[in-house]
Amino acid sequence: MSADSALSVENLSVEFRTRSGIVRALENVSFSVAKGETIAIVGESGSGKSVTAYAVMGILDPAGRITAGRAMLGGLDLIAAKPRQLAQVRGRQIAMIFQNPRTALNPIRPVGRQIADVLTRHGGISRRAAPAAAVEMLRAVGITDPARRAKAYPFEMSGGMCQRVMIAIALAAKPSLLIADEPTTGLDVTTQAVIMDLIGDLARDLGMATIFITHDLALAGQRSARIVVMHAGHVVEAAPTQELFANARHPYTAELIAATPDSATSLDALAAIPGSLPDLRRTDLPQCRYSERCPRRKDICAQPLPRAAPGAAHMVACWNPLPEQSMRGAKMSAA
Amino acid sequence: MTALLDVADVSKQFTVGGTEGPWTRFKRRFSGGPENLPKVHAVDDVSFVIDKGETVGLVGESGCGKSTLVRALTRLIDVSDGKIKLGSRELSRKTARVFARDPDRARIQMVFQDAGDSINPRFTSFDAIADPLRRLRKLRGRKLRERVETVASQCGLPLELLPRFPHQLSGGQRARVGIARAIAVGPDLLVLDEPTAALDVSVQVVILQLLQRLKHEFGMSYLFVSHDLSVVRLLCDRVLVMYLGKIVESGPAAEVFAHPLHPYTQALVAAVPRMHENSRQRLRLTGEPMSPIDPDPNVCRFYGRCPRSADACKASMPALRPFGSRLVACHFAEEFLPRP
What we know:
The complex is a heterodimer.
Chain A: E1 5-18, E2 21-34, E3 38-42, H1 49-57, E4 64-73, E5 76-77, H2 83-89, E6 94-97, H3 101-104, H4 111-122, H5 130-140, H6 146-149, H7 159-171, E7 177-181, H8 189-206, E8 209-214, H9 217-223, E9 226-231, E10 234-240, H10 241-246, H11 251-259, E11 315-316, H12 325-334
Parallel strand pairs in A: 3-8, 3-9, 6-7, 7-8
Antiparallel strand pairs in A: 1-2, 1-4, 4-5, 9-10, 10-11
Helix pairs in contact in A: 4-5, 4-7, 5-7, 7-8
Chain B: E1 3-15, H1 22-30, E2 39-51, E3 55-59, H2 66-73, E4 81-86, E5 89-90, H3 96-99, E6 108-111, H4 115-118, H5 125-137, H6 141-154, H7 171-183, E7 189-193, H8 201-218, E8 221-225, H9 229-235, E9 238-243, E10 246-252, H10 253-258, H11 263-271, H12 311-315, E11 321-323, E12 326-328
Parallel strand pairs in B: 3-8, 3-9, 6-7, 7-8
Antiparallel strand pairs in B: 1-2, 1-4, 4-5, 9-10, 10-12, 11-12
């Protein structure tokens, strides 16, 4: 790993044991975030986006088991770290925002006190000074009348305000890495825009790296410098945002872009992705988990996936990727 | 075009603290309490028309009264005031309970948000689709089975899935059951409450295209409720923008999204994420909407959050005014007209 990365995940594999068999939820997932960089992990439900985040944070369900891989945060491997080490790091260096703020917050504790808890535990602030500091945090995330709101319980606040409180809790100890798992799903678009602005502004001010998990390709495109596309527990493509949209090489990425209603001019111009995710409990999962849905499948796809050159800006896990955009143009003019 | 649904001045208020009978009202007044309990104005003086074969989008943030309006139109709840006409028939005078047995019940059907939650978990797909046919069309036996199988295949639901329960189906399949159930009785108006909100984009495309096809095949009208403007733009002919119980702008979808005239619509359009646009437009709504409990009838509902707020906005409530093919409720809409 390079010295300037905030987090580097290498060959992470996760399995879940269930009554109906072993679910191979992640396989050889690798990506890294540079310090201060915002990346997005994009994929449909079941692609392993959230499992990746949970595995890195060490909050995987007890049925889940990490079978291989490392997650390097500075010099510390989060996967091999002991619970006590993890407790030192979580909240202080790495923090997380969850999808549903109403269920993630403690329903029987005023929000100001929940922020104060983090401040005293991780922020190095005395118990006496914490309540006032919590009010300041609420002000920083744009809550009007923060002194009164600090005494409110989560059920007394709107979804957008609860999400602001979550952000205040996550950022209380000024972490160097923030993982935001679908932070605006279920919020209105107007609120979504404000919350995403807030996360972006705070990340810039604190020089914080952000991993932003979403199923919304348009939102990811607007808010991140780099996009990692996941499908059925594999990273299929990773590239700088503009490069990915202009020059998607993996067939799945191209289909995902074509299915996003944002850029289409009519409903007929949208293309559905044929097939569905393979059952991850199968023992005969193909090497490329997209191959059974893929229009570009060849015999070579049965081989183990090609390894990306380390440090490559644009990574594609495909034996028969779409040609580069410049090449596509050349082909068309030739024909 | 002939109007299929004509909604005139519909209002719906909810009393805060539950309903009260004559005796409790007498006690409250006798002990010096207020004349009337405070009321939430969920839908306030809403009028619009849906033509035959038209798709109308209804957008607005959560809590703006979309669902209350939709429930009133589909006659699941009673309105406080106003008229709802379906074709030539006035519906608002019939209570929701009576209307449930009415022959016209079949003409307005609804597709709910999350098919996983809105289908009885103890009903198989067959039962779910057959239920409205049994109740409203009195079909039984072989005729019932034939009709269920016809609509299921029209909605792209494989017949072998009919004996399955909702939890045995994927999200897309459940959405198809929800749609099949709604169109089984052959409605004229289909009200769709965020039918694709719970679906992944790849499945969403298929469902939207299915809805488009069904509309053309059966000549239904749609009222499409959604907060996803990029979907509304693709599916709808006309759009209604709602804010705190009032319609603030309406007009052809393409026009409204290209040149929004009401400041709220402008903020809404600016907030939609776009793939190829990294620069952030700085039109953002600050603060929270005002309380819907007994709002001042002379203050614009958007006052305080609106970037264009002026004294006129708290002196009188702006009424809907025509601008070409559009209606806009803002004192300053002229300022936002595109320069000729």
